[in-house]
Amino acid sequence: MPDTNDQDSAISFGAFRLFPKSRLLEKDGAPLHLGGRALDILVYLVEHAGEVIDKRELVRRVWADVNVDEGSLRFHITSLRKALGDPGEGSRYVVNVPGRGYCFAAPLLRAAPSENRPSAPVSSLRSLPAPLAKMIGRDDAVEKISGELSLHRFVTIVGPGGIGKTSVALAVAHGQLAGFDGQVCFVDFGALTDPRLVPGTIAAALGLTVNSDDPTPGLLTFLCSRRMLLVFDSCEHIVDELAPLAERIVREAPELYILATSRESFRTEGERVYRLFPLDCPPQRDGLSMADILAYPASQLFVERIAESLSEFELSEEDAPLVADICRRLDGIALAIELAAGRVNAYGIAGTASLLDSRFSLLWRGRRTAIPRHQTLSAALSWSYDLLPAAESATLRGLSVFVGPFTLEAALAVASCQGISEAEAVEAISNLLSKSLIATSPAERRLRYRLLDTTRAFAGNKLIESGEAARAARAHAAYFRDVLHDISIKSNGMQSAGGFLPYADHLPNVRAALTWTFSENGDRTIGVDLAAAAAQFFLELTLLTECYRWTQQALASADAVDNRKEMTLQAALGVSVMFTQGNTEGVRSAFTRSLQLAEELDDLHWQLWLLRGLHIYLTRVGDFRGALGTGEQGESVARKLNDPTSTLNVEWMLGVAHHLIGNQDKAVQFCESAMVQNPSSQRLNIGHLGYDDRIVALVALARGLWLSGRPDRAIEAARYTVREAEQLEQPLTLGISLIWTIYVFLWVGDWASAESMIDRLIDHAARHFLGPYHAVGIGQKGELLLRRGDVTGGIDHLRRSQATLYATRHRIMTTVFATALAEGLAAQNELDEALRTIDEAIAQIGDHGESFDMPEMLRVKGDILVESGRAAEAEGYFQQSLALSRRQCALGWELRGATSLARVWQRAGRKGDAQTLLAPLVAQYQEGLSTRDLVAARGLLGALN
């Protein structure tokens, strides 16, 4: 019961007065907050001033029957010295005698009880530790917990180690001092190792003298009539013993409130749980400024802690993204952020970031005054890990193989390889979640779990130490092989669009599994199966470089590859190489081999898919007739499938080929269906080839509309195409839509729209490593510069583009850019070079003239010949251009050719012929009268009249 002896004499030393019985320390007459254990140490040392007290004796006296290590004593001695002044001054009072113990060495002055009394009533409660001088990012939490406490009387702050539970609890407790008239008692269970001593520890903190083996009845009697707040700190290791006692206290003491901190809840009647989440971190997003990054509490804490040790520190714009990355990788855990900030003095911000993935980061030490379990990340995690039963610790170790989020099924698959039954694993995962060692990850489809990165690193080390790492990695890889295989089957092979997109959060685990299977100690048999299953996954997510890497490795393991797997891998290899490295013969070889295997397997869906791949390859190398033949071959396969979606797909293939060959009427006819919103085919086969067939058909339609004399509809279709591509969030598809619709705006003379789209294409291609697309964007930039009068800049851009496109065999655009280059050279009066350039472009097409841009090339050659003084010869090329334009149903080219020829005839005095040629063509246009070519043609007609 409470000690009722109120006789208390003051003991003075320096600026301090100590009242042992009142448990009060004053400095210059004002009360000085001191932790309970530190005050116990001071009282005992002062009572034995001048004596050297053995460390073990001091621990026995202060902690009674509680078993603590010497580190706890050092921690509280440090806190005591800090309270008594700076380190030098504090050491003057409490002296460490090496090898023996501690001694209070200052002279003392004792006053009689009647002469010196505390100036105010003093509680016998153990003093609250001082709150943090500045707490970052927790104001909202403190306010909400305070509100919960006023309503429910028993609140537990739950969260993983190092997240800041104690700091928040102390802030709440200090805020409650006035409301409880100072009756707030802090009980630290962190050093308690014997759960039987829980009631006695609470009693000691309250200043009660325990004279019974069971202090609970007396404790309850003392508390039942008091209005008081008890703060129970670090309860996770004694929660089974403390929970029923806390429940009784709340039930039997109606004015008693409890605020607890624990890594798991008490699960008692009346308890309210406040889950403390990590500090908010800057998102992983490009373009964040330093001000944006410092708006997040995690970044503020990191910078604040650096500034404490480096007073001259100022964050730079260059280092700000690294700070954001560090905070994200440390999951916003306050302790981890503080420990990392403590390394900046030695390694700098960039160096600290580079060391985060090393095992040494778990051993970085924090403040000397921190309690031992918070001095390193490893110590903080060991504190929780060592409390786990065997099934839970084994489950946690196994879960460290997961990178990022994982499902319950995935966790059970890994747990089973460790000999843990499904029931045991489910219970273990539930308990690990409640103990804050597993976190939940938000997901649209189903609940996902994840380990915080620091926990994963710690558990991963434990997995290696246990010798279970290879077994867990094999189970992990086998699980994701089976998952991806099942998704492929459910998405019905090639026919269902977007089957893998909802499972994009599996990506980090698929990468980790592939890395392990193809490592020196991995399992290549599983690796080949996984690479084949993951090939379509990577293509659908447009991870083409990764697709190329893993398909190559799998194909190199020839012994483990059967026909179906080889078919899948060869096809994926062809697509990934085509879109990242260019149109090499390796692409044709991969598609041809895969198609051969599909025919041997009599797999019609795969045959159609591979014909599509060959179709896009042939268009890119400029073999438009070959692309048409592939489309016609696809017609035969589609008829056998008797599937409307496949038929539509083949029609679009044919429409694109006809557009590129120059049959614009057929192109529009085949591609018009793409304008119809058809949910069943809107995203036909997206992902498996990396692009959307409907968007490619819309591109051909928009261009075909301009070429056939419908400029306004062409502009409308072009803008619609880009909007539709944007909604798919598919990089290749968006790149294709931009490349081909840009020309509609160049053709109509809308330089502003063309410029905006070209700049977007160049940036988009760079961000997604689409090398040939980037080169096309540079070439289009050059063409725009020419149109605006910057001839030198335009020629430079076009030549740079051509060099890359020829190197990557991306020939679909080379004649277009050669035509623009020839016009630029002619504008610089380099007429011979201009003629050589246009002749080479025409020769590239061949004598059959099967290219959509052949009429324009012939017209440009005629213009160059006119500039060279060879007007008669030029007229022949203009006539060829007009004849071919009519065969192609390309009114757009025909108008340009007629305008060029009419100018020649105007100069030759043949105004009537010129007017007869040009006027009927202008009259055919019912729209687009303000576009560039029509304005020029109508202006020329006006001059002729």
Q: How is this structure best described in words?
A:
- The radius of gyration is 39 Å and the shape is elongated.
- Helix 12 (320-329) crosses helix 14 (344-355) and helix 34 runs antiparallel to helix 35.
- It is of the alpha/beta class.
- The longest helix has 22 residues, at 469-490.
- The strands form four sheets. It has a five-stranded antiparallel β-sheet with strand order 4-3-2-1-8, with helices on one face. It has a five-stranded parallel β-sheet with strand order 10-11-12-9-13, sandwiched between helices. A three-stranded antiparallel β-sheet has the order 5-7-6.
- It is built from 42 helices and 15 strands.
- A hairpin with a 2-residue loop joins strand 3 (24-27) and strand 4 (30-31).
- 60% of the residues lie in helices and 6% in strands.
Radius of gyration: 39 Å
What is the terminal separation in angstroms?
118 Å
What's the β-strand tally?
A: 15
Describe the strand arrangement of the main beta sheet, using strand numbers: 4-3-2-1-8
Instruction: Tell me what portion of residues adopts beta-strand conformation.
Output: 5-15%
Largest sheet: 5 strands, antiparallel
Shape: elongated
Q: Could you list the spans in which at least 5 consecutive residues all have pLDDT below 50?
A: 1-6, 114-124, 358-375, 493-497, 679-687
Number of helices: 42
